[in-house]
Amino acid sequence: MALCRTGQARACFGLARAVEIALDVEGQATVKFPFFMAACAAGDANACTNAGATATRGSWIAGTRPAVAEARECQVRTYETACTAQAPWGCYMLGAEWAQAGDTAKARDAWQRVCDVDADGSACEAARSQLD
């Protein structure tokens, strides 16, 4: 915890993942989201992806979801940041956001970027299924 407080992204990401793995209960997002956000702010692109996914799909204790977590614009910015930093799942999630918004061209562009970043990874495999 002390290392996360000093801005060490890896420590914050590790705390979030520990919560994710060890605390499989309703409301888990309330605990892990701040750690993912801290890691994202410290420059961890994968943490940005996880923060975005937690914000929209996480299990929150009633009344604890930050307003920013509900803003679609925030989700898109978070995934754009992750994708720009070469995080394949960030690009994939960006594509999903654009697809949900009905912008097929932007969605396809984001999914193509997944495979440009990591052609052999699981995110690319998922993106290919969307591109087919």
Written description of the protein model:
The protein has helices at residues 2-5, 9-22, 28-41, 45-57, 67-70, 72-84, 88-100, 104-117, 122-131. The protein is mainly alpha-helical and 132 residues long. It is globular.
Q: What structural class do helix, strand and pairing data support?
A: mainly alpha
Strand content: under 5%
Low-confidence stretches: none
Query: What shape does the CA trace take?
Result: globular
- Helical residues, percent: over 70%
Short descriptors:
globular, 75% helix, mainly alpha
Task: Draw up the topology in text.
Blueprint: H1 2-5, H2 9-22, H3 28-41, H4 45-57, H5 67-70, H6 72-84, H7 88-100, H8 104-117, H9 122-131
Helix pairs in contact: 2-3, 3-4, 4-6, 6-7, 7-8, 7-9, 8-9
Brief digest:
The chain has 132 residues and is mainly alpha-helical. The chain has helices spanning 2-5, 9-22, 28-41, 45-57, 67-70, 72-84, 88-100, 104-117, 122-131.
